[in-house]
Specification:
about 210 residues; alpha+beta; 4-stranded mixed β-sheet; 4 strands
């Protein structure tokens, strides 16, 4: 029997495959939409939506990201299907083939490793609205909020794994010290009580931002 992590990995592969096959369908490279792949995705999402309590924090974060990605693709497919039925969609098989090759190249590429997170000041929520995925948590005294620091660390590591970034050099102890020092520095510089950290995946790159809260 497959483990939760194995099934989440399969869900991610199926979502990627669904996009490729829909591109082929709309480009004229296949006669029917990929309903079998779509059915597998729907079944896995339904299963873990009902069994959310069995997921660890990192698994739940990954599952939520995948369901958001699938929902975004599904909305695009629905609109393109409506255009196709109305006869307004243009078929460009060559463009679809290029898109497939680009997707394969992207999935095989690796982002250069980073030794430590770089927190960036984010004075407003407008920038974070453009992120495809995000996780937020605020601290006033991170040295006594170890559970929240652990959640932030797990979200950051999971996001980097999802983006194909190196995580081997990240340690929990080093991350804890980074959050403690960064929080104290911002509290001193900005005369604030709380500092909110945001893990974002924007255009395939993971960012850790620090927001000063009044």
């Amino acid at each position: 029997m497959a483990t939760i992590d194995e099934e989440l990995a399969q869900l991610e592969r199926d979502i990627r495959q669904l996009k490729i096959e829909y591109d082929m369908f709309f480009g004229g490279g296949r006669k029917r939409p990929p309903t079998e792949v779509e059915w597998r995705i729907e079944m896995l999402i339904k299963r873990y939506s009902e069994r959310g309590g069995e997921l660890k924090f990192g698994q739940r974060f990954r599952f939520n990201n995948l369901t958001q990605t699938y929902a975004k693709y599904k909305d695009v497919f629905r609109k393109r299907m409506a255009q196709r039925e109305e006869g307004t969609i243009q078929r460009h098989f060559g463009a679809a083939a290029k898109a497939i090759e680009a997707e394969r190249a992207r999935s095989q590429s690796e982002v250069a490793p980073k030794e430590s997170p770089a927190a960036e000041p984010a004075p407003s929520a407008a920038a974070s609205a453009s992120a495809a995925r995000s996780f937020r948590v605020a601290f006033s005294q991170p040295e006594s909020e170890s559970q929240k620091v652990d959640q932030l660390f797990e979200a950051f590591v999971e996001a980097k794994k999802q983006a194909g970034e190196e995580t081997a050099k990240l340690t929990r102890a080093g991350f804890n010290e980074f959050v403690r020092k960064k929080t104290k520095d911002l509290q001193s510089q900005k005369n604030c009580r709380d500092v909110e950290y945001v893990v974002e995946t924007v255009d395939g790159q993971v960012k850790l931002k620090a927001l000063v809260k009044s």
